[in-house]
Amino acid sequence: MKKTIQKIYILGTSGSGKTFLANKLARELKIKPIDLDDIYWIKKYTKKRDKKIMKKRLKKLTKRKSWIIEGVYGSWIKEAIKKADLVIWLDPPFRILSWRIFMRYLKKRDSTLKDTLNLIKYAGKYKKETYSASYKSHKALLKEHKINFISIKNKKQLNEFLKDFLK
């Protein structure tokens, strides 16, 4: 399957495993992964880029022959998702998300405890609320544009996907 797939978009909230999966696929497929955080932020998590610049950068990246993009941002990601050969939606339960986010904090210590708790809170709101980067808005986007996607909810499904995809 991997030979026909050149453009992959990985969707999911914080702690869902987007970066892990993007890096794993990137190594196997020899494609540099694109983290939307690097497009969205001028200075990570403190200063945002202008939306026009974000869109322009993303548009340029999606013109490549192959790419792996991971990120969960709002409506400006629509064009990238529409161009993807494969959309993978990582959707683990909240208890797993919160555990992963907290463990990331303990391992990396690259943010404050307060920021980490806010990220856990944000991950908890992902399925419950409607905003441009919420579960409901992403589901509507995929449905509106009739985009086929794979939903992965746990480690077993992830391992089965990787086994089948990387044959």
Structure, explained:
- The model has no long low-confidence stretch (mean pLDDT 89).
- With 167 residues, this protein is α/β, with parallel strands linked by helices.
- It has a 5-stranded parallel β-sheet with strand order 2-5-1-6-7.
- The longest helix is centred in the middle third of the chain and has 15 residues.
- Helix 5 runs antiparallel to helix 6.
- It is globular, with a radius of gyration of 15 Å.
- It has a single domain, classed as P-loop containing nucleotide triphosphate hydrolases (Rossmann fold, 3-Layer(aba) Sandwich), CATH 3.40.50.300.
- Rounded to an integer in angstroms, the radius of gyration calculated over CA atoms is 15 Å
Q: What kind of sheet is the major sheet?
A: 5 strands, parallel
> How does the helix and strand content classify structurally?
alpha/beta
Mean pLDDT: 89
Report the count of strand segments. Answer: 7
Order of helices and strands: EHEHEEHEHEHHHEH
Q: Give the N-to-C terminal Cα separation.
A: 7 Å
State the helix count.
8
What's the arrangement of secondary structure elements?
Blueprint: E1 7-11, H1 18-29, E2 33-35, H2 37-40, E3 41-43, E4 47-48, H3 51-61, E5 67-70, H4 78-83, E6 86-90, H5 94-108, H6 113-125, H7 135-144, E7 149-152, H8 155-165
Parallel strand pairs: 1-5, 1-6, 2-5, 6-7
Antiparallel strand pairs: 3-4
